[in-house]
From TrEMBL:
CDD domains: idonate-5-DH. The lineage of its organism: Bacteria, Bacillati, Actinomycetota, Actinomycetes, Micrococcales. Its cofactor is Zn(2+). The keyword Zinc applies. It comes from Sanguibacter suaedae. InterPro entries: ADH-like_C, ADH-like_N, ADH_Zn_CS, ER, GroES-like_sf, NAD(P)-bd_dom_sf. This is L-idonate 5-dehydrogenase. SMART domains: PKS_ER. Signal peptide: none annotated. GO terms for molecular function: oxidoreductase activity; zinc ion binding. Keywords: Metal-binding, Oxidoreductase, Zinc.
Length: 340
C-alpha cells in the first residue's frame, strides 16, 4: 500500500509499505479521505509537534475516514462495507483517573494518538491506503454522512469540546478570534449550540470568508479594524501569543475566554494584566474526550463542513497538499487528501 510518511524535518515521502492484516479485535479499513492538520504540518516542517519529537519515519494523519474491508477475529458490531471514522486516541495503561477528572479522557497522562511521535515506537496515522484499527476506536458514520465529511469528525470534536467548556450558549453573543480550520469549526459549533450572534475575527480575508460560510453573523478584518469590545464570551482560536492582550481587552469584565488555539510551549512576552483587573475566567480546551460521537450526530443533523474543505489533492501529491495547507495566502482552510 501507499502511505504518506514523514522521515524528518522537510522530508515527506509517499512510500510503499506492506499491506496490514487485521489482528484479533481489529478492523481493516480502506482509507478514503484525510484532512491535513497543524500537527501534520509541524512534523513535516520541524520534525516535531509540541514536545513530541520524530525519531523514526511515521505515517501522518489523524483526521481520516474510510470503509471497512476486513474483520479480525472477535470483532462484532461492525460490517464489511460500512463507512467509518475513528476515535484516534488510545489510552495506555489501566485508564484510571482521579474522580475529579472522571470522563475527561483527553487529560489522561499517556495517550497514543494516530500520527503522533509522543511514544517510541511512534503511532502511525491514517494517511495510507489501508489501516488496521482497534475495533473500539472505530465509529460508524451515520446515514447521509459521507466519508469525506466524516474525516472532519475529529477536528469538529475539538470545536465541540471547546464550546462545551463554555457551558450553555443559547442566545449568547460570541467572539471567535482566529478563523483557521478550528476557529471556523468553532463558529459552526457555536451556532449549532444555539449562540444568537457569532462574530469571527482574523487577519486573512479568505479565512473570514470561510467563517462567514460556516455561519458567522459578522466578520472583522483585523488588518483594518479592532476586535469588538465587551464581549462576554470569547473563543481564542488563533494560538498567537501576540493576540492575547487584545483578546483579553475585548472580553467584557467578568467574562470568559476559552483558549482552544494551541499556545507556544516556550516563553513569550505577553501582557496579561487585564486577566486580573477585569476578573476574567480563562479556560483551557485540549482535544476532546468522546465528542467525536457528538460530531457525528451534528453532521447527521446537518452541520455543514463543506465550506471548510477548500482544496483536494490525491495521495501522490501529498507534499504539494502540505505546502498549500501551510500557506494561508493560497486561500486554503482544510486541505483534503484523497487516500483511496
Amino acid at each position: 500500500m501507499r502511505a504518506v510518511v514523514v522521515h524528518g524535518a522537510g522530508d515527506l515521502r509517499v512510500d510503499e509499505l506492506p499491506d496490514p492484516a487485521p489482528r484479533e479485535g481489529e478492523v481493516l479499513v480502506a482509507m478514503e479521505w484525510g484532512g491535513i492538520c497543524g500537527s501534520d504540518l509541524a512534523y513535516w516542517r520541524h520534525g516535531r509537534s509540541g514536545t513530541a519529537e520524530l525519531k523514526h519515519p511515521m505515517v501522518l494523519g489523524h483526521e481520516v475516514a474510510g470503509r471497512v474491508v476486513g474483520l479480525g477475529s472477535g470483532v462484532t458490531g461492525v460490517d464489511v462495507g460500512q463507512p467509518v471514522t475513528f476515535q484516534p486516541a488510545q489510552l495506555v495503561g489501566d485508564g484510571r483517573m482521579p474522580e475529579r477528572l472522571a470522563g475527561r479522557t483527553n487529560l489522561y497522562p499517556h495517550v497514543r494518538y494516530f500520527g503522533s511521535a509522543a511514544f517510541d515506537p511512534h503511532t502511525d496515522g491514517g494517511f495510507s491506503e489501508l489501516r488496521a484499527v482497534r475495533a473500539g476506536q472505530v465509529r460508524p458514520l451515520p446515514d447521509g454522512v459521507s466519508t469525506r465529511r466524516g474525516a472532519l469528525a475529529e477536528p469538529l470534536a475539538v470545536a465541540l469540546h471547546a464550546v462545551g467548556r463554555a457551558g450553555d450558549l443559547t442566545g449568547r453573543t460570541v467572539l471567535v478570534n482566529g478563523t483557521g480550520p478550528i476557529g471556523a469549526l468553532v463558529v459552526a459549533a457555536a451556532k449549532h449550540a444555539g449562540a444568537a450572534h457569532v462574530v469571527a475575527a482574523d487577519v486573512v480575508r479568505s479565512s473570514l470568508a470561510v467563517a462567514d460560510a460556516m455561519g458567522a453573523d459578522e466578520t472583522v478584518d483585523l488588518t483594518s479594524a479592532d476586535l469588538p469590545q465587551d464581549v462576554e464570551l470569547v473563543f481564542e482560536a488563533s494560538g498567537a501569543a501576540a493576540a492575547l492582550a487584545a483578546v483579553l481587552r475585548a472580553t467584557a469584565k467578568g467574562g470568559t475566554i476559552v483558549q482552544v488555539g494551541n499556545l507556544p510551549g516556550t516563553a513569550v512576552p505577553v501582557t496579561l494584566g487585564d486577566l486580573v483587573t477585569r476578573e476574567l475566567t480563562w479556560i483551557g480546551s485540549y482535544r476532546f474526550s468522546e465528542e467525536v460521537d457528538d460530531a457525528l450526530v451534528a453532521l447527521a443533523d446537518g452541520l455543514d463542513v463543506d465550506p471548510l474543505m477548500t482544496h483536494t489533492f490525491d495521495l501522490d501529491a501529498a507534499e504539494e497538499a502540505m505546502s498549500v495547507a501551510a500557506d494561508r495566502s493560497t486561500g486554503s482552510s482544510k486541505v483534503m487528501l484523497r487516500l483511496g
